[in-house]
Amino acid sequence: MKVISTNIGKPTPIVWNGKQTTTGIYKYPSNEPIFLEKESVAKDTIADRKVHGGIFKACYLFSSDHYPYWKEKYPNLDWDWGMFGENLTVEGLDESKIRIGNIYKLGSALVQITQPREPCFKLGIRFQSQEILKEFIDHGFPGTYIRILEVGQVTTGDVMELVEESKSSLTTQAFYKLLFSKEKNAEHLKLAIANDALPSGKRERLEKWL
Fold it and tell me: What is the value of pTM for the model shown?
């Protein structure tokens, strides 16, 4: 897996349900390295700390492999890396194979796979259609957030090197499907609840399904 682009967003004013707010989803290639801090990316914009940033969502990665699919569905957009609000666009990132809890060397940082991205209305604003939320869920390739175990710098061309594979077999994609499925897979529920790479609040909510 190789970093294709490092992306940074500035505060962008938007109007939602008649109210003005801001978003950091408009990220664009920075042409410079980015620095991964413990709870965020340095110089990046996080408009709503309740749902973005923090230990388990410090940085968002999305695969360049899925750009052709979305470009075909939304050909009239002004396409560039960072379209999904990702700080790092990564070639070869495969959510069906990456396990939650995997630890990677990424640039000079050490990172751990945490949770997939759950789309909100701000992705719909960037894509000029709220229909993308359901499409994004159905497609099943949501990218992933990472926890920063050791802060460090990441630049274009850096490779994600597996340092330690998670003992849990739960993949990012399997967990993503678990979150949105009406009938929960009991085995995946147990794997998720036992995986401390996931935030405790999310694991506690999933316990209610058992």
Answer: 0.93
